[in-house]
Amino acid sequence: xxxxxxxxxxxxxxxxRFCQDILPKVSRTFALSIKFLPGQLGRSVLCGYLIARIxxxxxxxxxxxxxxxxxxxxxxxxxxxxxxxxxxxPQLTQSVTGDxxxxxxxxxxxxxxxxxxxxxxxxxxxxxxxxxxxxxxMQKFVNLYPNGLRVKTLEEYKEYCYYVAGTVGYLxxxxxxxxSPFVNRATYQVLRKTCAEFGEALQTVxxxxxxxxxxxxxxxxxxxxxxxxxxxxxxxxxxxxxxxxQNHAAIKSLVxxxxxxxxxxxxxxxxxxxxxxxxxxxxxxPLMFAYATLRDIxxxxxxxxxxxxxxxxxxxxxxxxLVSPFATVSNLLIRSLIRTVRQRPFSL
Length: 348
Description:
Blueprint: H1 12-26, H2 28-34, H3 39-60, H4 66-78, H5 83-92, H6 100-107, H7 109-116, H8 121-144, H9 154-179, H10 185-192, H11 195-209, H12 211-217, H13 225-230, H14 244-250, H15 252-271, H16 277-297, H17 314-327, H18 331-343
């Protein structure tokens, strides 16, 4: 494939080193998974993830105004076409607040786009298409809720998840088709039927485990107001200990959605050709972590209490890291592992 040379004076080795080094600082799970993807596929997925994380950091900033967020996301979109815009972008983000590692990434946006411009042309087009849809969706919700995201209905929740996560499922599937000789046209069409759910399932599990964090630190509430009102609570009393029972009942619809989407995600994984082992290995770790986390969410109320969240144990994380890759060689082993993880903590 035709390669596009770097349009900035940055050294390509330094660019790649930065992108590799920043990844585990902004996502430990993703950093574990991406190691399985070879060559240009791995570089494309890495670049796409980092751009999405830059957009997410801007969207989640509770202090930056709606107008400023919208303008920054517009400028981020310009970076796909204009290397000068990407070189200047870090200067525009000095007022953005958030996690230090995420801010470090935002301040080095020009390096991520320097990597982007070295990707194959088709990979660049795939990233630009799906990340543009993601970012425009973020802008829609930022402007819809200028005082902090407050999801009203389950349908609105699904729309939000499509923009920020379903698009990622499509992006990945398009990259599988481009880079893997084992993903032919017929397989590609099959995968596209459930690829959105693959991204959305992981998003819903992350939202459920971090309900309190999102409300207290990012001024965002994703539990639909209609569900809370139906059980005698509201966005205003989401973390009120006097409403714990009502709030726990209200998140049932999201828990059910997560289980449904996780099972579709498992089917997505098992429909990947056995020859595409690196892609299967990339997909299985976050999926198993999500199954384990959702299992614990169903037995906990910690995420509905101030300062609380749900995390699986380090022992289970280590076990899943060791065992999951071996399960990818057989759909029977994948199903067996899922059954085990759904029922109880899994550790050796």
